């Protein structure tokens, strides 16, 4: 049986996927808010998508049935019920889903080769750059999640961030963007004496961060995670050794003329 942590992670992933399937209207609203990014896939056609494995094909088939049978059950409970059904299946019952996955992977390889064959060198380079950026973004997200799990202190807030947190709810804007715009305008109108209060709070937050990050980094060194430290310890610079004077050679004295 798979570990409980792995099962929980899979359940949460499937819950997010089903949440997208079951709430299309909210997904459309989110997409409408996102800025348009010009990428290779949007200009020259996207490459074929990787096929689902056997286990992911089973929830895709069972999810509408479970939702219809249990309309008041949350998405997480739906995933749990589907996972229980999958574990209860025999190898013979799982075989059709596995076979579909094998056929889909074979077709995916053919489609991918066909897609790459019609690309120009510039499009191939653009596709590689997109993949590199996508992997770098995933890596940054995983690293940030790891740092949060390890309890890394939050960075100090700026004076404006502190002001925005205290006055966000009472801002006049109707949307988040409008509120931020109004808060920026109100901040610019504040007198220097009024801003001084938030500047002091920001300075105190910097002291807090400095103490907490130092303690956290010491703890990371004890755990053997020096790779998570901001800057590595500087090596001690050895003082230059003085050369011993050679025997039998007198020091030459230089006589400088001129006014003292």
Key features?
3 domains; 260 residues; DNA Binding (I), subunit A; disordered N terminus; mainly alpha; 0% strand; elongated
Structural class: mainly alpha
Q: Tally the helices.
A: 10
Distance between the termini: 91 Å
User: Briefly, what CATH class of the largest domain?
Assistant: Mainly Alpha
Describe it for me?
There is one protein chain. This protein has 260 residues and is mostly helical. It folds into 3 domains: 4-118, DNA Binding (I), subunit A; 119-149; 159-228, High mobility group box domain (DNA Binding (I), subunit A, Orthogonal Bundle). Helices cover 67% and strands 0% of the residues. It has 10 helices and no strands. The chain has helices at 4-22, 24-33, 40-44, 54-69, 75-88, 91-117, 121-149, 159-167, 176-189, 192-223. The radius of gyration is 31 Å and the shape is elongated. The N and C termini lie far apart (91 Å). Residues 48-116, 153-217 form the HMG box domain. Keywords: Activator, DNA-binding, Mitochondrion, Mitochondrion nucleoid, Nucleus, Phosphoprotein, Repeat, Transcription, Transcription regulation, Transit peptide. This is Transcription factor A, mitochondrial. Residues 48-116, 153-217 bind DNA. Its main location: mitochondrion.
